[in-house]
């Protein structure tokens, strides 16, 4: 069993992980205490490559694969239902109003009943969806926000699947939009970080980083953290839209495809240079770095005093948040690009050969 304490500000209980990164701000943090020596509870084979990441709701685990199949799996590792979209699913699903919502590479956003897998509605963009959708909510008002390679950020009504508004940019939107304090913040391949009003869809402002941004930003309080394709890493003030600090990449830097994990003092992010970096949140100084033997494309999660992540070297790691020292590792035998889903009962990863792995105590 994994211990859990209540987490203020979470949109789900300790038994759920309803969105990519666990929160609409994409900060990838939880107070759930994971075991220092977790064991593999079960493994489910789908025999198809996947780049998706799992989400968990009411004991069921949801994920997609490159065959375009969305799976619902029980907490014991049994398939409950599956739905064929027809094209690959690279994005992580989200759970909203007893629906699971996911985008596919033909540009369709699908909404299915979580219990039955029946189609509720579908919404079509004009190009592929690679990043997860996100949820903005204010009381009873909820909206689904998703980016597309059609250069637009779309806002969709979760009840009907109808378009409410969209914002046009200058290039592909690859990542997931982050949401905090009634602001939507996202990057794109045009090099801009954009700030959008969730009600009107009006672009409030932007910050030009002038380089391809494939990753998603993570938000904490009044700061946004994001890396770019050249290995640079930025902290942006959400109120002023100015860059508070930046860490420049060099000839040995790898691109940053991962979404950072952030708490009140540290920022954790993996890089294609095979390192997991821990930055001081206030000034960007590197406090430690951990070297894996493969690229780190998946996003880490801060779980209590530890950091949980996977690497393309085939290993899943737990390292100390304070020191970066390795506590535990598990050899999956194949690359891991998935971001974990963490609840009070288990944590789950997907491997690139299509296995869903569940760990606990």
Structural key phrases:
globular; four-stranded antiparallel beta sheet; mainly beta; 361 residues; single chain; Methylamine Dehydrogenase, Chain H; disordered N terminus; five-stranded mixed beta sheet
Polypeptide structure, described:
- The chain has strands at residues 29-30, 39-45, 55-57, 60-64, 69-73, 79-84, 94-96, 99-103, 108-113, 119-124, 134-138, 141-147, 152-156, 163-168, 178-180, 183-187, 192-196, 203-208, 218-220, 223-227, 233-237, 243-247, 261-262, 266-270, 275-280, 286-291, 301-303, 306-310, 315-320, 326-331, 341-342, 347-350, 355-360.
- The strands form 8 sheets. A 5-stranded mixed beta sheet has the order 1-27-28-29-30, with no helix packed on it. A 4-stranded antiparallel beta sheet has the order 2-33-32-31, with no helix packed on it.
- By secondary structure, it is mostly beta strands.
- Helix content is 0%, strand content 44%.
- The protein has one domain (29-360): 7 Propeller (Methylamine Dehydrogenase, Chain H).
- It has no helices and 33 strands.
- Mean pLDDT is 94; it is low at 3-12.
């Amino acid at each position: 069993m994994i211990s859990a304490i209540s987490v203020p500000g979470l949109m789900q209980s300790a038994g759920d992980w309803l969105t990519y990164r666990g929160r609409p701000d994409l900060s990838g943090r939880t107070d759930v205490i994971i075991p220092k020596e977790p064991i593999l509870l079960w493994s489910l084979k789908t025999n198809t490559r996947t780049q998706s990441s799992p989400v968990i709701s009411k004991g069921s685990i949801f994920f997609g694969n490159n065959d375009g199949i969305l799976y619902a799996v029980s907490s014991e590792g049994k398939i409950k239902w599956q739905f064929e979209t027809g094209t690959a699913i690279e994005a992580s699903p989200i759970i909203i109003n007893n629906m699971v919502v996911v985008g596919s590479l033909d540009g369709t956003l699908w909404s299915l009943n979580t219990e039955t897998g029946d189609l509720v509605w579908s919404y079509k963009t004009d190009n592929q969806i690679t990043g997860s959708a996100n949820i903005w909510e204010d009381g009873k008002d909820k909206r689904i926000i998703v980016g597309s390679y059609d250069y637009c950020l779309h806002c969709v009504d979760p009840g009907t699947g109808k378009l409410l508004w969209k914002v046009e940019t200058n290039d592909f939107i690859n990542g997931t939009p982050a949401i905090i304090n009634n602001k939507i913040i996202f990057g794109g391949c045009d090099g801009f970080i954009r700030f959008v009003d969730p009600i009107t869809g009006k672009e409030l402002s932007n910050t030009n980083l002038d380089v391809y941004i494939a990753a998603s930003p993570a938000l904490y309080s009044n700061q946004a953290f994001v890396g770019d394709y050249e290995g640079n890493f930025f902290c942006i003030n959400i109120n002023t839209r100015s860059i508070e600090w930046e860490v420049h990449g060099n000839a040995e830097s790898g691109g940053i495809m991962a979404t950072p994990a952030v708490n009140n003092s540290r920022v954790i992010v993996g890089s294609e240079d095979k390192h997991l970096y821990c930055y001081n949140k206030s000034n960007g100084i590197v406090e430690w770095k951990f070297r894996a033997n493969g690229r780190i494309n998946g996003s880490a999660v801060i779980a209590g005093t530890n950091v949980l992540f996977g690497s393309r070297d085939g290993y899943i790691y737990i390292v100390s948040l304070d020191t970066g020292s390795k506590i535990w590792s598990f050899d999956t035998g194949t690359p891991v690009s998935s971001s974990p889903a963490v609840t009070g009962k288990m944590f789950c990863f997907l491997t690139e050969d299509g296995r869903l792995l569940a760990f606990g105590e």
